[in-house]
């Protein structure tokens, strides 16, 4: 994990949903987000998040794009139909200009390639939670 300026969370009690089918990525990103004092609920698939009774609790989602079953774009479309849509930040190991453009055009709040730059992710999360 990169060390740098200490991020002061906009909402220390904010809950972030983390969706990635790779457990090592879930653990690394969860650790990073928790280091900034946010609560993290993590899921191995988009379907797990969408079927979780706690899905209304998160204020932001960090999601992989390439996942079995519903991909990150399908998850984003589902979240946009919620009564209270929340920002979705994408992370992916498969970066192409088409994927980056599609994420932007579909309303993703952010886009990161793996391995994720922790400092940049934490700064964006903090900025989005201030809104």
Describe the structure.
The chain is an alpha/beta fold. It has a single domain, classed as Response regulator (Rossmann fold, 3-Layer(aba) Sandwich). Helices cover 38% and strands 18% of the residues. It is built from five helices and five strands, in the order βαβαβαβαβα. The chain has helices at residues 23-35, 46-51, 72-80, 97-105, 118-130, and strands spanning 15-19, 39-43, 60-64, 88-92, 110-113. A five-stranded parallel beta sheet has the order 2-1-3-4-5, with helices on both faces. β3, α3 (72-80) and β4 (88-92) form a beta-alpha-beta unit. The radius of gyration is 13 Å and the shape is globular. The chain starts with 14 loop residues before the first strand and ends with a helix. Mean pLDDT is 91; it is low at 1-5.
Summary tags:
alpha/beta, Rossmann fold, disordered N terminus, 131 residues, globular, 5 strands, single chain
């Amino acid at each position: 994990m990169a060390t740098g300026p200490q991020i002061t969370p906009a909402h220390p009690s904010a809950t972030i949903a983390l969706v990635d089918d790779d457990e090592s990525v879930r653990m690394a990103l969860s650790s990073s987000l928790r280091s900034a004092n946010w609560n993290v609920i993590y899921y191995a698939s988009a379907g797990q998040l969408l079927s979780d009774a706690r899905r209304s609790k998160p204020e932001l989602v960090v999601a992989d794009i390439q996942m079995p079953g519903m991909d990150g774009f399908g998850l984003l479309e589902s979240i946009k139909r919620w009564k209270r849509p929340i920002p979705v930040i994408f992370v992916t190991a498969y970066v192409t200009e088409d994927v980056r453009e599609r994420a932007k055009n579909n309303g993703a709040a952010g886009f990161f390639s793996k391995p994720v730059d922790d400092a940049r992710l934490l700064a964006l999360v903090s900025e989005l939670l201030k809104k």
